Structures are given as structure tokens and as C-alpha cells.
Amino acid sequence: MSVLTEICDLFFPRYCPTCGKKIVGKDVICSECMAKVPAVPASHEFSGRNWYFDGFFYRAHYSGIMGEIIRAYKYIPRMSLSHVLSDLFLELFKRFPPPNNSVITCVPITFDSLKTKGFDHVKRLSLEVSKKINVNFLNLLEVSHQMKSQVGLSPKERKAQIIGKYSVIRKNLYKTSGIVVLLDDVFTTGATVNECSRVLKAEGASKILVYTLAKSTKK
Ligand SMILES: [Zn+2]
Predict the structure, then answer these.
(1) Helices within 63-210 (DSSP H only)
(2) pLDDT digits over 83-101, tens only?
(3) Overall pTM surpassing 0.85 (yes/no)
(4) CA 81 – ligand 1 centroid, Å
(5) For all residues of the chain together, what is the average pLDDT?
(6) In which domain, by residue range, is 166 found?
(7) What pLDDT is attached to residue 5?
(8) Are residue 57 and residue 12 in the same domain, yes or no?
(9) β-strands 207-215, 179-187 pairing
(10) 31 CA distance to ligand 1 centroid (A)?
(11) Which of 117-121, 150-154, 176-180 has the lowest mean pLDDT?
């Protein structure tokens, strides 16, 4: 550890956002918490519904330490956590690499959400991932109607609320090969990524691969 880091630790102590323990050095999350992050799943079950996307990969289940890190990042604007999470995404992309000619995009957030959080947490992650895996990022989707928060809604309510809420930025989609990597933080019922995939396919995307940090364990 450098002298400067030691001095900073002394005057500006930092604490692990998930367990609250004091952190030394350059870590953002303490090593004990990081050690609890599960390994990348060996395979991903993907069947049983009429999905518009062609593949789905997630880094871990949305429980335990993974849930805690994502919530810490999502609800308190802690930009430093995006480095930790984009590294976790990177492990997923290394195991399940997308085709070379794909482009990365992400699920857009609503204006209300942007106002509350102060930053677009998914886009920030997507831009970091894009740099790390050397695949271009393009904004391909926008929110066409402002939605209320989906937290606490039943799967049926989520689905009804989401139909027709996203639209495609055509001029950007037409610059791509048609193979789209769609990023989101959490896959809950899949309604959001499915609707994004539906509109992208309707505008001519040929293949959509969904990558999320976590998958909800609730049925
Ligand atoms: Zn910790």
C-alpha cells in the first residue's frame, strides 16, 4: 500500500458498503464480501416461454452478497461500485462471449428514475463493459412513455405496464449488424428485456442476447 493511500485511509476512512467493515487500500468492497460472490454459472437454462431474445446469461442469482452489492450501487449513487460490477459482468462475458459483430445497448431508465438516482446506473455499467470487452456501445432504445416504478408490482401488472413503453432509435440500429447485446442489472420476470427485444426485432434486429448481473430467485 502506498504512503498516500495510508494517509487517505487515516483521514478519510472508507467502509464496505455491504458489511460496514473498514476498508484498507484501494478496495471498494472488502475482500471477505468479494469472496462470497458466487462463480459464473456453468450454463444458463433458457426455455419455457415465448421470448423475443435469443439467449440469456446472468452473472449470479439476485440474493446474498450479489443482491447487496447491486442494491448498494442502484439506490445510493456510488460510482466506484460500477467498477466492481463491470468486472463481474466481464467474467460473464469471458465465459459466454457475444459474436464479434455485435453491439452493446442497455435498457433505458425513466426520467423519474434518473432524477432520483442522479445517474443512469445501467448505462454507466454498459459503457464500462463495452470498453472492457471492446464491443461498441450504442443507444438503441428510449422510453416512449414515462413509467411508474415497477418495484412491488406483480408479474401480470409489470407486463401490462410495459407493453409499448420502449421505442427504438432507428438511425442507430441501422448502423449495426443487427446482433444486439442487451444489458440490464436484474432479470426479474424478464418482461422488460422481452419488451425491449420485441421492439428491436420489430425494427429489424436479427439476434438479441440478454446479459444481466443477476437473476431474481423468485418465481
Ligand atoms: Zn464487506
Answers:
(1) 64-75, 80-95, 111-117, 121-133, 155-162, 170-173, 191-202
(2) 999 999 999 999 999 999 9
(3) yes
(4) 13
(5) 88
(6) 37-215
(7) 67
(8) no
(9) parallel
(10) 7
(11) 150-154
156 forms beta bridges with none
* Ligand 1 centre distance from Cα of residue 122 (Å): 23
* Count of domains observed in the chain: 2
Do 133 and 167 share a domain, yes or no?
A: yes
Q: Smallest Cα–Cα separation from 218: which of 150, 122, 148, 154?
A: 154
Q: What is the structure's pLDDT at 150? A: 65
Of the two residues 50 and 183, the one the predictor is more confident about is 183
Residues with Cβ within 8 Å of 60's Cβ and at least 6 positions away in sequence, in order, are 37, 38, 40, 41, 66, 88, 213, 214, 215
CA of 178 to the centre of ligand 1 (A): 41
Centre of ligand 1 from the C-alpha of residue 125, in Å? 21
Judge if 113 and 207 occupy the same domain: yes
Amino acid in the structure at residue 163: I
